[in-house]
Every structure is written in structure tokens, then in C-alpha cells.
Amino acid sequence: MPPGLSAYLIRRLLWTIPVLLAISFIVFTILRLAPGDPVDTLLGQRYTEETAARLRAKYGYDQPLLVQYGKYLWNLMQGDLGVSTRHADFTVSEVIWPKIKVSSQLGAMALVLTFAIGIPLGVYAALARGTPLDPLTIGFWLAIDAVPVFVAIPILQWLLAVKLGWVRLAWDGVWSPNIILPVLIMSLPGVAGVARFTRASVISVMSEDYVRTARAKGLPERLVVWRHIARNAMLPLITVIGLSLPGIAGGALFVELYFGIPGIAREALDAVLAPDFDVVLALVLFGSLLFVLANIVVDVSYAIIDPRVRVQAQRG
Amino acid sequence: MQDVAVLEFETVVRPGASPWRRFLRSLLRRKIAVIALAYILLFYGAGAFAPLIAPYDPNAQNLSIESRLQAPSREHLLGTDALGRDILSRVIFAARTTLLFTVAVLITGGLLLGLGLGLLAGYRGGWVDTLIMRVGEVLAGIPTLFLMIAIAAAFRTRIDDAAYWLKQHTFLGQDAKAFLDFVIIVGVTVPFAWVGSARIVRSQALAIREMEYVLAAEAMGASVWRILTRHILPGVLPLFLVGVSSGMAAIAGVEVSLSFLGLGVDPPTASFGTLIGDGAGVRTFQAYPHLLLSAAIPVVLFFFAWNLLGDALVDILEPRMQVR
User: What's the ipTM?
Assistant: First the structure.
């Protein structure tokens, strides 16, 4: 690791602590101040003042806001995320971990697929610059990008499952062929972004001196493109990984809803609507941590790859 | 769709380059950009004059068997829905919802917060800059859609009393609940909608601040307000436009997504989210494809038009993307 970078890394990691504290406090306050507390939902028809008071005392909802928040933080530091009210008496960890596992596997596959489609498209568009194929390729993917996931899903489900009979819609776990369609749908919205970024990056590399040298010494065009242009153009793409994460998370919600996938995005929606305080908080914190860490990894790996960034990293 | 908060451009100012006319001319030379702009204007025009254009009352139900779920015909160009309402009229009124929403977010999140905070951060620098950009960084780093859902869900349950009060005491009357729903979705979008444009404006303002003419204005004792509006703003505006138009599809998408999930605009107020929601589902689509397509095609084209326009603007104004 280059000198100065470790200090930068440590500073960035320390900075995540106040960020997560701020997010957790804001979400905590919003949840607690809104009416319709979990106890009302839990009791429903059986609501009596007495039971409600007993349950509020059990979950600690009868205490002042700051005391509750303090207790939450104290428990959090000991690895206790609290209990779910919606799944009676399950701890939050028991509720969320299996679902996080499913969603993260799906998300990882979608991320890989986004780049597997987007990079060749971008390289292709850049090489075809000046011909009508370039704007057509990018325009086509901008059109795909404009279709909301919840519009694309029923149409593709109907086309591929009902009309053509190529896929089945049932949920058979992550390792089954049925997973192809959901993963494809999650990856499509990000493709346009990756392709455009790759295109811009390839175009800027194409006019570098070493590309001209490679051509001048008589290297076959295929080698020039893949060894000299594509490889150097890939470096800035690392930043796009961080930027595509929110889109994939958003797409995951609708994919999980439509395909009946027991994932974390659907759990988050249900927990918010219930409301299930501790589950919502745990998920918001988990999501934020993931995003913040992803951004740090992106920045640091970028600094390792591109020496020009390192100077800024040391300063900033 | 891209996430609202993540759009950003780092830009270099080209000294001496800003004339609006050159910008307009190169924009109008691009056929695709002109078509996109025309569609956006058509869409917004339909929304603005919805009561005059719509062939039927968007909320008029007709529950007889033969008038429900009709396929497109000459009487109902886009068909009718499960309650026998004319879908074309509902689409036109949904464009009105989109118009109101995007304009409200544009004014509050784009102009007030995005442009205002960006100028402030770029011109003032120091701790003001650090504070604004750090807050933006936090907002850009969190899963936006889920936080918006959480906040919208939390507030929606508590507005009944407020809606009742507004109904009694203001001119809103029956529209009080719809008005509050609207305030909530605008309110949850704005905190995330300003970051992208503020970053663009800031980086531009930072560069322009160092120009001689700004120094000259300062030396002549011009007020901060005058320097910001007369000297820095004109140089910042073109790229601000790029940022806004690139983010617009995502911003309009927030209302559609939230309404689709039942957390945005409540029926019977027409919204593309609820219209799409009526036709979504593989069985519904198989039986009545017009429900989904009639609503989805106009709004998808609208998002696409913003994407194309944003792309064209980036091409014109973003120097790094230009042919070297």
C-alpha cells in the first residue's frame, strides 16, 4: 500500500462512525415519533390499555426517546440488534441474516452481469464512434434504462414464462435456473450507465500516445484494442461499481416482490409498513454501512491504481 | 433508473466559453435532442391543460360489464380500467401529477437547495463548504429508495388529523388529503434530490471564483449577492441544466415508484404509479395488456426523453466527453 494511503483509509473508516450514528438517530427519531406503534399492530383486535402498557414496558417504548436510543446503541455495541415485533419473539438477527444471504447472492450476480453486458457494449460503441451504430447502441440502452423495473417484470414474465415457456416463475432457491430472469432484470437498469462510462473511458484512452505506438509497431488491431485500449480504459470503471449499488438495491425490491423471493428488500418494506422498529433500524444501518464501505473500497482501490489520485487522497 | 443522489459530474471550466446562443444552436442542431425536448413539452403541456384536453372525467366510473376493462377503441383511445374509467383521461391527469411533482422538486430541491447550497459552498468555501458537502456525502451514500419509503410510511399514518383540519379551515376542502400526500412525497424526495446539482454547481463556482472578473468585482466593492447572481451564476447555469436534466427521470421516477407501492399519491388521484400498478401482474397483463401498456408507454417515453436530452446536454457542455 502506498504511503499516506493507510492514514487516509483510517480517516475514512473513522468517518463512517459519525455518519452511521447520524443516520441511525434520524431514523430512530422518525420511527419513534410516528404514531401507529408496533404494539397497536401486534395487539390489533385484542387491544386493551393494560396489555398495551405491559408490552410497551417489555419493549421499552414507554421510556424517553433519548433513553431508548442510548439503550439501543448500548445493545448494538454488544451485537444485540433487538427483537422483532412482527415475527413474534424472533431476534432481529434471526430474521434478517437468512434473507440478507439470499439478497446478497442475487445482488452479486446482478452486479457481475451488469458489467459483463455493459463493458463489451461500451467498448463496441466507442470503436464504432462516428458511425450510426454508436448512438444506436447507447440509445437502445438509454431506452432500457428508462423502463421502470416494475413495468419490465410483468412483461418479461409474460413473454418468457407464459408465452415462450422458457422459464418457470417459482422460487426454488438461489441455485436453480429460475433465478436467471430475476437476476437479468436486476442487472438491466445499470447496463446503460456502465456502457456509457466505458465508452467515454475508451474514447479518452484511444488517443493516448502508447496506443499510437502500438499501432505504429504493427500490432494486430485486436491486440491494440484489448491489450492497450480496453485494459487501461477499465481502471475508472471501479468507481461505477459503487455508483451502481443503489440502483441494484432499488431494483431488488420490485424483483423480490414480483418473484416471491424471500429477500431483504421485501423484508425491509414489510418491516417499514408494519412497523417493526428494530428490524427497520438494523436494515437501514446494514444498508448504509454497506454503501459507505463500498464507496471507501472504490476510492482506495482507485488511489492504488491511479497515482494521480493519490495526491488528492493524501490531502483530502 | 439511476438513483437520485448519485448523479455527479466533475467539470473543468473553459474560460471564455459560455454564450447561451452557441449552446442553444448546438442543442437545436441535434435532431434527437429536439424530438426529446418536444415530447417533454407535449407531456407537460398535456399535464398543464389536462382539464381542457381530457376527453372524459378521469374519475367518472361506469360499472356496467360492457364498459369495464375495454380494449382501446374509438370511444376510448387507450381503453378503460376495471372501474370503467377512460384510461386516456387518467393518463393525461397523471401527467399533471408528474408535472406538479417535478416542478415542486425542481424549485425546492434543484433551485433552492441544489443551486443555492452549491453556490454557497463553492463561493464561501471553508467550513460552510465542508459541512454542506459532508451532509451531501451522507445522503448520497445511503439506500435512498428505502429511506424514502420509511419516511413516507411513517408520515402517511399521522396526517389524518392534519388533513381534517385543512379540510375545515382552508380552501382545499376535499383535496386536503391529496395535498398532504403530495407534500409528503415532495418532502421525502427533496433531501436526496439536491446533492447531485449542488456538487456540479459547487465545482463550477469554485473555479469561477478565481477568475479575474470576480476579483475585479470584489475590488470594486460589489455585494456578495451581486457577485453570486451577476458574475458566478451565468457561468454555473449551463452545467446546472445538464445536472438537472440528467436527474429528472430519476426524480419523476420517485413519485411513480412510491405511488406504485401505495405510498405516494392515493387513488382516485391519477398517477402513473397507480395506473401501472392496476395493470401490473403477469395474469392481468396476459388478460388485459392495455392496462399496463397504456400507462407505461407514455411515462417510459417521458423518462427516455429526459435521458436523451441529458445525454445531448452532456455532449455539448461536458468538455471531457468531447472528441479530442
Answer: 0.78
Query: Cα B253 to the chain's mean position, in Å?
Result: 8
Residue from the list B5, B150, B256 with its beta carbon closest to the beta carbon of A148:
B256
Residue A216 backbone class (left: φ over 0; alpha: ψ -120 to 50; beta: rest): alpha
User: B86 phi and psi, to 5 degrees?
Assistant: -70, 120
Q: Are A232 and A205 in contact (CB under 8 A)?
A: yes
CB distance A80 to A160 below 8 Å:
no
Q: How confident is the model at residue B171 (pLDDT cuts 50, 70, 90)?
A: confident
Q: Are A272 and B3 within 8 A, CB to CB?
A: no
Whether a cis peptide bond, with omega within 30° of 0, leads into B268 is yes
pLDDT, tens digit, 9 for 90 and up, residues A164-193: 888 777 777 777 778 888 998 888 888 888
| Under 8 Å between Cβ of B246 and B313 | yes
The CA–CA distances, whole Å, from B107 to A233, B147, B252, B264 equal 38, 22, 14, 19
pTM over 0.90: no
A74: Cβ–Cβ under 8 A, 6 or more apart, which residues?
A: none
The verdict on a CB contact (< 8 Å) between B145 and A135 is no
**Cβ atoms of A11 and A257 closer than 8 Å:** no
CA A222 to chain B, closest CA, distance in angstroms equals 23
Of A196, A278, A198, A286, nearest to A249 (Cα)? A286
Query: Alpha-carbon distance A141 to A119, whole Å?
Result: 12
Q: Which residues pair with B86 in a beta bridge?
A: B80
Give CA–CA dist B182/B105, Å, rounded.
11
A71 to chain B, closest Cα gap in Å: 22
Which cell goes with A83? 427483537
B145 pLDDT above the threshold of 80: no
Please report how many Cα atoms fall inside a 13 Å half-sphere around the Cα of residue B75, on the Cβ side. Answer: 8
Nearest to A241, CA basis, from B6, B18, B187: B6
Please classify residue B194 by burial: count the beta carbons closer than 10 Å to its beta carbon, then call 0-12 exposed, 13-18 middle and 19+ buried.
Answer: buried
Identify the bridge partners of residue A91 per DSSP, sorted by sequence position.
A83
Residue in the structure block whose three cell numbers are 400498478: B277
Indicate whether B300 pLDDT > 90.
Answer: yes
Name which of A113-117, A227-231, B12-16, B110-114 the model is least confident about: B12-16
Nearest to A189 among B1, B146, B147 (CB): B1
